[in-house]
Amino acid sequence: MSLTLAQAQTIIAAALAKSKDMGYQPMGIAVLDAAGHLKAFASEDGASMFRFDIARAKAWGAVGMGVSSRTLGERAKGNPNFFVSLAATSDGKFLPQTGAVVIKDAQGKLLGAVGASGGTGDEDELICIAGVQAAGLSHR
């Protein structure tokens, strides 16, 4: 099974709904497939031009390493040179900053990742989780 466009759109719609319910700032949300390719993206009215690059980079790191960007940020504290090198070798597509989670099917197969940008890292992560759950998928 691979991540479908319908699933990606469900993730985005639910994440944006959660953001609106919580009263967060305008968000950008990127959903990537298991190969790190963009599957879908949405930018709310009023979101800054940086939202796409940040959301995608958070998701790209998560899918590439198979863990949430929160976990990557924690790992980066203990090995900063490695993570700086990853960011450099990926031409800036890798951002170990809280706000992205992996997307897995019921059997635990990695299907992709979703990243958000617009709020705090915790806010971004919260709406990503809401989106993944709304699509009937797992973020762990």
What does this structure look like?
By secondary structure, the chain is α+β, with helices and mostly antiparallel strands. The chain has helices at 5-22, 51-65, 69-78, 80-89, 121-134, and strands at 28-33, 38-43, 100-104, 110-117. The two termini are 17 Å apart. 46% of the residues are buried. The mean pLDDT is 95.
What are the defining features of this structure?
140 residues; alpha+beta; 48% helix; 18% strand
Helix-strand sequence: HEEHHHEEH
**Helical region count?**
5
Extended strand count: 4
Question: How would you describe the shape?
Answer: globular
Q: Report the radius of gyration as a whole number of Å.
A: 14 Å
Low-confidence stretches: none
The end-to-end span amounts to: 17 Å
Structural class: alpha+beta
User: In which order are the strands of the major sheet placed?
Assistant: 2-1-4-3
Mean pLDDT across the residues is: 95
| Major sheet characteristics | 4 strands, antiparallel
Helix content: 40-55%
Query: Strand portion, in percent?
Result: 15-25%
Q: In a few lines, what is going on in this structure?
A:
With 140 residues, the protein is an alpha+beta fold.
Strand-helix topology:
Elements lengths: L4 H18 L5 E6 L4 E6 L7 H15 L3 H10 L1 H10 L10 E5 L5 E8 L3 H14 L6
Antiparallel strand pairs: 1-2, 1-4, 3-4
Helix pairs in contact: 1-5, 3-4
